[in-house]
Design a protein that fits this description.
This protein is an alpha/beta fold and 323 residues long. It is built from 13 helices and 13 strands. A 9-stranded mixed beta sheet has the order 5-4-6-7-3-10-11-12-13, with helices on both faces. A two-stranded antiparallel sheet has the order 1-2. Strands 8-9 form a two-stranded antiparallel ribbon. A hairpin with a 2-residue loop joins strand 12 and strand 13. The protein is globular. The chain starts with 13 loop residues before the first helix and ends in an 11-residue tail after the last strand. The structure holds adenosine-5'-triphosphate (ATP) and magnesium ion. Adenosine-5'-triphosphate binds next to helix 7 and strand 12. The site of magnesium ion has 4 residues, from helix 7.
Length: 323
């Protein structure tokens, strides 16, 4: 996507552009896609002015209507980041996709964090080795980012571990509000720091801990929805993937089959482009199943957690047979 300067949008002078930039609205794409009310609140610019410049931004990008052919072309620019497991990549249609939000859901110990840690190393590789040639933002809500583990994975994949750690920008988030604050800064931070992958592990942990009781549910869902949509806009504005993790909760009324369902309800379900459900398989393996995707078939595969992060279960291994 071409990058037009904010100052080239009709009605945006240097003072307005600087207010927009300091609120994280760094490109015309972000200006065009952010809800005007949110821009007005964050920048202090009058609502009517915001409406005018947002309209001008959309006009300058000619994005009010595009043909399906143009959308197809835009999607040709989509990149894929390998997970280091060929089978999981295949399940995902070639890897973790840019311009999309991919969600890994599962119980404790199913490998969500291990996938995120592996991706934070692989994303730094050149495209011919399955990477995105870029740096990584890792938002850690649970304090489970272990640098020694990234060191080990980088070593096992033949990368300089110190350099690899130096390319991961870590944000330990302390509450859902702090998480939102950091998400707001990504449109500025990502292009300035060659960030090509954003990870939020976990997306919903803080929300679950802070909003207790049914009466807070709609407020929680609204706040979660707003963060997810800001992440989605980021994927499109900078052609990068966002990976989020999510937990499960038991449904006490379900007596047959897997009683676990993803937390976050419809808000998570609608905002995430591809949803991957993880569970434990035999002999320490993990099973990944696509549960919702606009273009991937509902399918499953198996992987294992090793010193390389995650990788394929060996062919011929009896574990592969019961997938
Ligand atoms: N170096 C390693 N080699 C093999 N297995 C490992 C290694 N490091 C961690 N594991 C395994 O990874 C699993 C933990 O996975 P992970 O931390 O990704 O879970 P999670 O899905 O993020 O769980 P939670 O919901 O608690 O965050 C454990 O079973 C652990 O034994
Ligand atoms: Mg985890």
């Amino acid at each position: 996507m071409e990058n037009v300067e904010l100052e080239n949008v009709e009605g945006v002078g240097s003072a307005t552009a600087s207010k927009l930039r300091s609120a994280g609205i760094t490109t015309v794409q972000v200006l065009a896609a952010t809800p005007p009310r949110e821009i007005a609140e964050k920048t202090g610019i009058g609502f009517n002015t915001v409406l005018n410049i947002a309209t001008a931004a959309r006009k300058s990008l000619s994005i009010d209507f595009i043909t399906a052919e143009e959308l197809w072309k835009r999607r040709q620019g989509m990149l894929k980041c390998s997970t280091n497991s060929k089978n999981l990549d295949k399940l995902l249609g070639g890897g973790i996709e840019t311009q999309a939000l991919t969600e890994f859901i599962g119980e404790f110990g199913t490998g969500k964090t291990q996938i995120c840690l592996t991706l934070s190393v692989v994303a730094q590789l050149p495209p011919e080795k399955g990477g995105l040639n870029g740096n990584v933002v890792y938002m850690d809500t649970e304090g489970t980012f272990i640098p020694e583990r990234v060191f080990e994975i980088a070593n096992a994949l033949g990368l300089d571990p110190h350099k690899t750690l130096g390319n991961v920008f870590l944000a330990r988030t302390y509450n859902s509000n702090h998480q939102g604050f950091l998400i707001d800064h990504l449109p500025k931070f990502c292009p300035e720091n060659n960030v090509k992958l954003v990870i939020v592990d976990s997306m919903i942990g803080h929300f679950r801990g802070e909003y207790l009781g049914r009466e807070t549910l709609s407020e929680r869902q609204q706040a979660l929805n707003s963060q997810l949509h800001r992440l989605l806009r980021l994927t499109e504005a900078f052609n990068l993937p966002v990976v989020v993790t999510n937990q499960v909760q038991a449904n006490p009324t379900q007596f047959f089959g897997d009683p676990n369902k993803p937390t976050g309800g419809n808000v998570m379900a609608h905002a995430c482009t591809h949803r991957v459900y993880l569970r434990k398989g035999g002999k320490g393996t993990r099973i990944a199943t696509i549960i919702d995707s606009p273009c991937l078939p509902e399918n499953k595969t198996r992987f294992k957690i090793t010193e390389k992060g995650i990788e394929d279960v060996q062919e011929g291994n009896e574990d592969t047979q019961e997938v």
